[in-house]
């Protein structure tokens, strides 16, 4: 695929439709190579620094395994290794890492941390998750849906639950790819209005925020849910269980969508809360296909951003104020 316009992947909304389609196409190619045991090592000799402020199963394993399979190497940096903003500033971390490695993947609480890393570093920075956005997850979800449904334009994805980082990235992806997206959530837990406005202004599809489950799920080709209390919201968990109970993805809710609507969840799942076992493990569920595809989509992102880049020497650091999405 052609190189991306930006050196970083911070938000899906930074990507043009053609760039998203290029990533999904490359993911399909890399998945085929993986299943046929065909070696493909465009990142031979390259290293990815992986910054984790939050725990992870899928993000860590898929990025680390992905780098290995692409011929490169990944270094895990946990909270105690860096402690961005306390031990060192994001700028200082970026200026150190750009001298040693070829890319940075960061999974942080504050979205601004990833924005700051991308602004300061001369090497690619990938948003592995922030409290605002989760672009890698949703790109992989789109890849999975494309495998199952073919063209995504005109399809409808319904989201039950919190207007969180995953919902935000789905709103952006839907606007770019022509997907009709609806989210049903309790009052006070809607997606950020500025994200809805920004996406809706450019969308050719319908983006709907509602408190009515039936409205959201009507004619949905896929029904998506996520945990009710994300990392960092543990003190709200008990309250949220009560508030979100009517928005559980159960058999009755699923029946409001199309008869063969696909069931999606980014995992980890709190079984018996946002989703029941019967639905999560049922014949319409594709949640573990989503998890599998994190590997292939992550590899596509890494290849698109890092295959043709070179580390810059002293004095060559990119001056790119204003080029990084918030």
Description:
Its EC number is 2.1.3.3. With 326 residues, this protein is of the alpha/beta class. It has 2 domains: 12-133 and 294-306, Rossmann fold, CATH 3.40.50; 137-290, Rossmann fold (3-Layer(aba) Sandwich), CATH 3.40.50. The chain has 13 helices and 9 strands. It has helices at residues 17-35, 58-69, 79-82, 90-100, 111-120, 135-149, 165-177, 193-202, 213-217, 237-244, 251-254, 277-280, 287-306, and strands at residues 47-52, 73-77, 103-107, 125-129, 156-160, 180-184, 207-210, 222-225, 262-265. The strands form 2 sheets. Strands 7-6-5-8-9 form a 5-stranded parallel beta sheet. Helix 1 (17-35) packs across helix 13 (287-306), helix 2 (58-69) packs across helix 13 and helix 7 runs parallel beside helix 8. It is globular, with a radius of gyration of 19 Å. Residues 318-323 have low confidence and may be disordered.
Mean pLDDT: 94
Low-confidence stretches: 318-323
Task: Name the CATH class of the largest domain.
Answer: Alpha Beta
Which structural class do the helices and strands define? alpha/beta
Kindly report how far apart the N and C termini lie: 26 Å
What is the helix tally? 13
CATH superfamily grouping of the largest domain? Aspartate/ornithine carbamoyltransferase
Measured as a percent range, the helix fraction is 40-55%
Q: What gyration radius follows from the Cα positions, in whole Å?
A: 19 Å
* Sheet with the most strands, sense and barrel status: 5 strands, parallel
Protein name: Ornithine carbamoyltransferase
Pfam families: OTCace (PF00185), OTCace_N (PF02729)
Domain Aspartate/ornithine carbamoyltransferase Asp/Orn-binding: 154-304
Subcellular location: Cytoplasm
């Amino acid at each position: 695929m052609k190189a991306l316009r930006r050196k970083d992947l911070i938000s899906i909304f930074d990507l043009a439709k053609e760039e998203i389609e290029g990533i999904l196409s490359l993911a399909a190619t890399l998945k085929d190579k993986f299943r046929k045991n065909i070696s493909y090592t465009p990142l031979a000799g390259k290293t990815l620094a992986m910054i984790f402020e939050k725990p992870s199963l899928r993000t860590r394993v898929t990025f680390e395994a992905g780098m290995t399979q692409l011929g490169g190497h990944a270094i895990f940096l946990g909270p105690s290794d860096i402690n961005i903003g306390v031990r060192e500033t994001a700028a200082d971390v970026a200026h150190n890492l750009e001298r040693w490695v070829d890319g940075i993947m960061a999974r942080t609480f504050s979205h601004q941390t990833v924005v700051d890393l991308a602004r300061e570093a001369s090497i690619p920075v990938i948003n592995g998750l922030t409290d605002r956005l989760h672009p890698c997850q949703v790109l992989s979800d789109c890849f999975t849906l494309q495998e199952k449904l073919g063209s995504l334009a005109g399809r409808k994805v319904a989201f039950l639950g919190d207007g969180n980082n995953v919902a935000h990235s789905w709103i952006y992806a839907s606007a770019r790819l022509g997907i009709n997206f609806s989210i049903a959530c309790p009052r006070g837990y809607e997606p950020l209005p500025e994200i809805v406005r920004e996406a809706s202004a450019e969308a050719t599809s319908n983006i709907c925020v509602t408190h009515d489950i039936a409205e959201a799920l009507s004619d949905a080709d896929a029904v998506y849910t996520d945990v009710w209390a994300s990392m960092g919201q543990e003190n709200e968990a008990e309250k949220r269980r009560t508030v979100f109970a009517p928005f559980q993805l159960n058999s009755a809710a699923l029946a409001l969508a199309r008869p063969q609507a696909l069931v999606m969840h980014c995992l980890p799942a709190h079984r018996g809360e946002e989703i029941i076992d019967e639905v999560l493990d049922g014949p319409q569920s594709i949640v573990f296909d989503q998890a599998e595809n994190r590997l292939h989509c992550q590899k596509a992102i890494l290849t698109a951003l890092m295959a043709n880049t070179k580390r810059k020497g002293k004095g060559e650091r990119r001056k790119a104020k204003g080029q990084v999405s918030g």
